[in-house]
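The authors assume throughout that readers already know how a fold can be written as discrete tokens. Each protein is reduced to its one-letter sequence and a matching series of backbone shape codes. I therefore recommend that a typical entry be quoted early in the introduction. For illustration, here is how one protein appears when written out as sequence plus structure tokens:
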Amino acid sequence: MVILEDKAGLRSFQIFVRYPIPNGTKVLLNLHANGTMAATDNDGSQDIGELVYACSLKHLPPVVLTCLLPRSYPSTCAPYFTISAKWLDEPKVSYLCAMFDEIWTELPGQEVVYRWVDWLNSSSWSCISLNDNIIFVPDGTSDVADEHAIARKLLVDSTIPLMQNYNEKRSQELFLKNLHECGICLSENTGINFIKLPCHHLFCMKCMESHCRIHVKEGNLTMLICPDTTCRSPLPPSILKSILGDDCYMRWESFATQKLLDTMPDLVYCPRCDAACLEVDNDAQCPECFFTFCALCKERRHVGKECLTPAEKISILRERHKKYSLPEKQLLKEQREINELLDVCEVLRNSKQCPSCKMAISKTYGCNKMTCRNCGKFFCYRCNKAISGYNHFWYGDCLLFEDNNQGRRFGIFEEPDDEEDADDDEDVDDGEDLEELEPELVRLYPCPICGRRNEKFSTNNHILCIGCRGHYCALCRKRVLRSSEHYGPRGCQQHTNP
């Protein structure tokens, strides 16, 4: 309620009535050109074919009641009033005004403003909606327009975007006022201290700022995602700009640009001035110094000749150092080039290149499903092909793990502590060795796909592999797609003694 200034000694005010609309209230358009409502079946259900879905709203613009109380109110005169609902058509607003006149007729000489507002809150929703859905008909006017009604003057196509804008604005206002819990530190605070991500997860400003600054400082852009472990949606630049300062945001832009350039397969850098160049058939020309070079070996363009390998280039440079007395500046430059080539040889010897961005990646332990930290893509470390999940290891020729002794790699069995324990093991009989040193070996069954050894659950031969999440049979060591088909009178027994 808003108290307005007195006019000629008369009191005036405005009351804003907001409807608590049900969740998922839809705005529908009626396609009938004559403005009649959509047809309904005998059971009262709507004929959906006559309606077009427009949008869903959580908040509607308020209905504004403006009143001016005359001096003789409430004894003889009713309040002067107007009802403004600029998103409703004229017939509906006129109906609300007619109901106000009817209430005054039923209660002459009594104060009716409260009764009017109570009727708007409790009973007018059924006049506006149909089955909790708001249906807009083509624009038209009633035969007898009520002078108290202020309805929409715009077309329906223009009114709906205005309602959507109000819905977003109202939702943001309530978000800033209400208390929320941070998904990282679990503290509660008002929404003005929170950030709402496009994925609708909420985190406080302090946690999000720390989360983003750490990864930008380390240059790990693939981790600039929603901190919720079930979401992992990337953070848009607008969110990052609001969280990071100017310096940190410029650093992120530099990293993002460099990362984008690194993922372009036809982009190389000039070996003389480091300018970006476009590669065409393994050859490129620098736009800055106009040096034409081979994109593979970074030497002058050599048509019809094979590129020198890094080892051959190292051999040639070292031979030059022995034969010629080079200036110190040239000597340092070539020695730096030799060191870089040695690093390249070492990297290529113990790593694989990501098939998407060509970043060199080395595997130290674990399975053959690799995740590139530069571009975030998955690939198989064994065949170097881009993959999306574990199906590549189920249906292809590649194994998820290289060796079959997965029990030791995952800590199921203990390794000998020193060489003396290993020597003592040689004097023990094979049968005693299995029973005493590795008593669990007889109860572990290797997975036919990844090689990990898993234990049977009681007498059930149907095993779920912990490594690759695949199902297989402990008796025949074959993959089980359907338990009812694999086990039975003509197949393996599902339950046997351990």
About this structure: The longest strand covers residues 51-57. Residues 33-49, 404-442 have pLDDT under 50 and may be disordered. The first helix runs from residue 90 to 106.
